């Protein structure tokens, strides 16, 4: 009972602090509470700690050299303050994995949980650190240099940051859940895979709009105080949908691999 009291205080305090420092919107704070409790039910303090590492590190990166990333945010649908859709996109699958573990006690769900968090951390670090590169990123579908913040574009700095983000989560998870070095290595790879899938979806499938006033290609449905025009991509595949699906695909293949080769 006392442990759950601390869990409640931890989750509520984290959500309120996130809202107070503009890391979360009101809807984002409420969604974070739901995600937090879902994770606490299954993976307990270890899972909450991984979620906290993801949220804190990603939030700090979003504020780091924010002025240099102002032009990038013009291309993005939403800024660094996460709403409920962004929280669910990154925390929905870990919540499902954790609840599944609470019901079945099958360690494969802990694997899926770790990969989901690692994938989200990998993608967010790439998105926040990559735009700080001194050279413009390369769009993978045309191999030409494009503006920073373009979905489907990669840079060396962003790729390294992505790998480090996945490694951080996998490393801490290996300590908490006593994974072997080989398991840590594969968890890092599958977390990184989530970012690669996100990049591919961003390049070929994610919806893009264009502002008729200034000509900017953006994820926003409104820009320059007017509605933007659909340009390309699948209309329902916005950034949050791509994040969710990319994480889901990485978790699927990761769990498939571990079920076949590691957890027998």
Defining traits:
66% helix; 8 helices; two-stranded antiparallel ribbon; mainly alpha; 264 residues; 6% strand
Which secondary structure elements does this structure contain, and how are they paired or packed?
Blueprint: H1 2-20, H2 26-63, H3 70-75, H4 84-104, H5 108-129, E1 138-139, E2 153-154, H6 156-177, H7 181-204, E3 208-210, E4 217-218, E5 222-223, E6 226-227, E7 229-232, H8 239-261
Antiparallel strand pairs: 1-2, 3-4, 3-7, 5-6
Helix pairs in contact: 1-2, 2-4, 2-5, 2-6, 4-5, 4-8, 5-6, 5-7, 5-8, 6-7, 7-8
Coarse structural class: mainly alpha
Strand order of the largest sheet: 4-3-7
Kindly, what is the distance between the CA atoms of the first and last residues, rounded to a whole number of angstroms? Answer: 35 Å
Number of strands: 7
Strand content: 5-15%
Low-confidence stretches: none
Global morphology: globular
Biggest pleated sheet: 3 strands, antiparallel
Order of helices and strands: HHHHHEEHHEEEEEH
Helix content: 55-70%
* Computed Rg: 18 Å
Q: How many distinct helices?
A: 8
Report the average pLDDT across residues: 90
Task: Explain what you see.
The protein has 264 residues and is mainly alpha-helical. The chain has helices at residues 2-20, 26-63, 70-75, 84-104, 108-129, 156-177, 181-204, 239-261; strands at residues 138-139, 153-154, 208-210, 217-218, 222-223, 226-227, 229-232. The two termini are 35 Å apart. Strands 4-3-7 form a three-stranded antiparallel sheet, with no helix packed on it. Strands 1-2 form a two-stranded antiparallel sheet.
Quick recap:
Helices cover 66% and strands 6% of the residues. With 264 residues, the chain is mainly α.
């Amino acid at each position: 009972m006392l442990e759950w009291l601390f869990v409640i205080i931890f989750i509520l305090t984290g959500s309120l602090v996130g809202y107070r420092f503009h890391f979360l919107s009101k809807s984002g704070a409420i969604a974070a509470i739901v995600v937090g409790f879902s994770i606490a039910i299954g993976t307990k303090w270890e899972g909450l700690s991984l979620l906290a590492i993801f949220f804190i590190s990603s939030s700090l990166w979003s504020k780091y050299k924010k002025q240099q990333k102002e032009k990038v945010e013009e291309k993005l649908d939403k800024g660094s303050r996460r709403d409920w859709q962004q929280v669910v996109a990154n925390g929905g699958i870990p919540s499902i994995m954790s609840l599944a573990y609470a019901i079945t006690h099958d360690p494969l769900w802990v694997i899926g949980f770790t990969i989901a968090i690692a994938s989200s951390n990998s993608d967010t670090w790439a998105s926040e650190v990559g735009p700080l590169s001194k050279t413009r990123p390369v769009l993978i579908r045309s191999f030409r240099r494009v503006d920073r913040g373009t979905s489907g574009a990669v840079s060396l700095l962003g790729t390294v940051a992505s790998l480090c983000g996945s490694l951080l989560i996998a490393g801490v998870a290996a300590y908490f859940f006593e994974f072997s070095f080989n398991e840590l290595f594969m968890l890092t790879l599958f977390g990184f895979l989530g970012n690669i899938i996100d990049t591919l979806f961003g390049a070929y499938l994610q919806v893009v709009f264009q502002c008729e006033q200034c000509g900017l290609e953006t994820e926003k449905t409104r820009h320059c105080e007017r509605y933007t025009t659909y340009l390309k991509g699948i209309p329902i595949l916005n950034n949050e949908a791509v994040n969710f699906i990319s994480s889901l695909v990485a978790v699927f293949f990761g769990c498939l691999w571990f079920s076949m080769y590691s957890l027998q």
